[in-house]
Amino acid sequence: MDIGNATSVNQFILMGLTDVPWLQKVLFVSFLFFYQLNIAGNLLIITLAIRDTALHAPMYFLLANLSFLDIWFSSVTVPKMLVGFLEDNIISVSGCIAQMHFFHFLGCAEGVLLASMGYDRYVAICSPLRYCSIMNRLFCIQLVLASWLIGFFSSLIHSIMSSMLPFCKFNKVQHFFCDVKPVIKLACSNTFINEITVAALSGFLSTCTFSLTFLSYFYIIVHLFKARSSQRSMKAFSTCSSHLTIVILFYGTAMCTYIGPSSEDSIQKDKVAAVLFTVITPTLNPIIYALRNKEVKKSIKKFFTFQS
């Protein structure tokens, strides 16, 4: 293709999940409900972590930051997706790159934060006497800042490389938001380097954070097996169950999406996976913690009793 004579594309059309009218309406109502539940649930977790002194602990500080990330992570994609169910979903190229940047920025930050939460559980169970000295306020703030910085700079690489590609003919993004893999497929030049970078960088970061989380739980399990009290072991591991469930939900979809080559079949599967980690998982996170964590359940009861 002669790129010099081609017409430059200045906007993209997001093709969405389906073009069936009745299904679009069903999905609009369903995803709007999930999005509202996501905002309400995560705002509740943040409010409880701030107001309730019983939750002024490192674990809940990290949980509140996870809820903050979840709100914005969904807000980057879901409102635009909802618009697409009602009308043609058009986005400028610069807006598309911006959406791509913030999506990967917040998603990567969440992965790093989940690893930090795994380390928090490791220290709490394996070194309880040193917990307060290790997981002090300054260290917790550093963990949160590290998650934001790692997410920002890793996403910046994708954004810069994608913005340098020439888009000169095709403008239909086969997705409900501007994700890096379907966007770079529209470029008029060879995107091999971009695809390798996506797989390598995303694979490296997700593998590292998942491995660190796995390592934390490996040492936790070894420690609990050595513990004499089975009751104490079960009580200790119950504090990890909600975090472990969220880790499985998050990495189970994210790693399958970004590790591997891009193809027509993979992009269709990626849409389904993307719905899980942009709509479903952020909504389930506060529900999982509310149902499986006794301190959070007590705090919720206290909060609504006080409000009434």
TrEMBL record:
InterPro entries for the chain: GPCR_Rhodpsn, GPCR_Rhodpsn_7TM, Olfact_rcpt, Olfactory_GPCR
Molecular function in Gene Ontology: G protein-coupled receptor activity; olfactory receptor activity
Source organism superkingdom: Eukaryota
Cross-referenced Pfam families: 7tm_4
Segments crossing the lipid bilayer: 26-50, 57-78, 90-117, 138-161, 204-225, 237-260, 272-291
G-protein coupled receptors family 1 profile domain span: 41-289
Sorted UniProt keywords: Cell membrane, G-protein coupled receptor, Membrane, Olfaction, Receptor, Sensory transduction, Transducer, Transmembrane, Transmembrane helix
SMART domains according to UniProt: 7TM_GPCR_Srsx (SM01381)
Locations listed in the record: Cell membrane
Its membrane topology: Multi-pass membrane protein
Family indicated by similarity: Belongs to the G-protein coupled receptor 1 family.
Protein name from the UniProt record: Olfactory receptor
Organism field: Leptobrachium leishanense (Leishan spiny toad)
